[in-house]
Amino acid sequence: MNIHEILSSPAAAAEREGPSNKIVWSSRVRLARNLANTPFPGWAKKSVRVETFKHIRDNVLQVESMKESFDTGMDKLTTLDKQILVERHFISREHAAKNTGSGLVLSQDESISVMINEEDHLRMQALLPGLQISNAWTAIDQFDTQLEHGLDFAYSKKRGYLTACPTNLGTGIRVSAMLHLPGLVLSEQVNQIIQAVNKLGLAVRGLYGEGTEALGNVFQVSNQMTLGETESDIVERLNKVLLQIVDHEENARVKLMESKPKMVYNHIGRAYGILANAHSISSKETMNLLSLLRLGMDMELFAGTSQALINELIIITQPAHLQKANDGKLSAEKRDLLRADLLRERLKGVDRPVVPDTKTLEDSQNQAESE
Amino acid sequence: MLCDICKEKEATVHLTQMVEGKTKKIDLCESCSKAKGVDDPAGFSLADLLLGLGASQEMEEADTANTKCPQCGFSQADFKKTGRLGCPECYEHFEEGVEGLLKTMHKGTRHTGKAPAVWQQTKDYVDQMHELQTLLDKAIAKEDYEKAAELRDKIANLKTEYAAAAKTP
Ligand SMILES: [Zn+2]
Ligand SMILES: [Zn+2]
Fold first, then answer.
1. What would the pLDDT profile of A43-78 be if each residue is shown by its tens digit?
2. Which residues of chain B lie closer than 8 angstroms to A144, CB-CB?
3. Surface-to-core class of residue A102, CB atoms within 10 Å of its CB (0-12 exposed, 13-18 middle, 19+ buried)
4. Is A93 an interface residue toward B (CB < 8 Å)?
C-alpha cells in the first residue's frame, strides 16, 4: 500500500479554502468515546484491543459518509507513513506509536478521521479549513449520533461520556483552531494575548516545534475543560475568542505598516531571499521564513502567487513528506539539502516582493517616530 | 532547575498556564516533555501533567484508596502511575476520589452536554412523566375528575409509546 496514492496530494490539500483563512488556517473538533463494559485501550489485553478495533472499524465503515473511506491497522503502516499522517494532522503522535489492535479510518474527503484505540476507544475529529468550528462541531456531532446505532458508548447520566483520562470526561470534546499570528509576534503583543486567552480557561500553544516555541508563528487555541458545560457553550466561547484574536491580528498588521513598514518589508524580503536562494535549510528555519512569505502574500506583495503555494510548501518541506518524496529515510543533513533544492525550484516562478515607493515610506516612518 | 517529573535531568522546557484563574508552573526536561507529549499539540493537556504531580492525592485520600475496580482490577496505584483509569466502571468504583479530582480540572463535576439518543429518550420520558403526574395530582386535589381522567389516559399513552420506542433498536 502506498499512502501517497490514498491521501490527496499536498497540492490538492493546500487548495482547500475556508472563511477567514488568512489568519485561521484550520478548525478542528475532536470527540472522545469509549465502549461500555470494555476496559480502556491502555488497560486492555491485546486480544481485547484487537477485537474492539475490528468491532469499531466495522461500525465506522457502516456510516453513510464513511463508505468510501480509507481504513488501516496501525501495524500495517511504515514509520514514515505514520509520520506523514501526523504531518497532515490526521493522527496524533501518540497514535503513530501504536501497532496491532489500533487503527485509523479516514473519510474520502479527509474531513473526518477516526483514531481507534488511541488513549480512548474512539477519537474522532472533523477538520475543516479556515474558521469553521461550528461546522466542524455539527459534522462530528452527526457522525457520533450515527455511530450510536451500532456502538454502545460508555455513558453515565452524572459524568457524561466516560474517558480513560478524567481530563476529557463529560463531553469528551476538544475544540481547536490553528492560527497564523505574525503581526502579533512582530509587534510583541502575542504574550499578552496568550495570557488573556489562558485566563478564559483556554490553552494556547505553538503548533510546530518542540516544547513551547511557536515555529512559523502558528498557534493552536483549544478548550481544556470538558465537564460542566454543553458542547455548544464551549464551541461558541471559542468562536468568540477566535474572532477577537483575528481582529487583534488584523489591527496589529495595520499598525505595523503604519509605524514600522521598513521592518516588515525587511523581514519579508530577507525571507524571500533565503528561501529562494539557499542550498541547505532546516525545517525550523523553513517554517519561520514561510510564515513571513505568507504574510507578504496576505499583503499582496507577491502579485500572481496564491497562498495555496505556501500551504503546499509547508506540507512538503516537513521531514516525512520530504523523505517520502525522495524514496526513503534520509539523514538530517541530506534533508536540508533536498529541502533547499525543492524551495528554490518551487519559488523560481515567484518574483521578489514589490513594495510601495520607499521614499514615501521613509517619510511616514520618520513622521511616526517624531510623533 | 531539575525536571518536575523525573527529578533527575535539567529542565529545559518551562510551561506556565492558567487553570481556573490560578497560575501553574511546570518545568520539564527534554525527554520527559517528549514522553508527556508536550510537543504534540493534539495530545498534550496540562491537566495530564498535574495529575502526575500531586493532583491524584484526591484519589489517595478516598476510602476506596486500597481497593480494586471489581470490573477490571484497576487500582489507585495504577492511576497514579498512568493518570488514566482502567475502564468505564472505574468512575463508579472510585467515585469519591474522582469527585475531588474533577473539581480541580473542570468547570463543574456534572455533565450537562450531549447524551446518546437512548439516554435522551429516557430523559424526555422521565421529564414528561413527571410533568403529567404533577398535573394529575393537582387535578385530583381540586376534585376535577374529568381532567384527571384525561391525564390518566395521557400517562397510559406515554407509557405504551415509550415501551414501543425502547424495543426498536
Ligand atoms: Zn525529566
Ligand atoms: Zn475499572
1. 999 999 999 999 999 999 999 989 889 999 999 999
2. 114
3. buried
4. yes
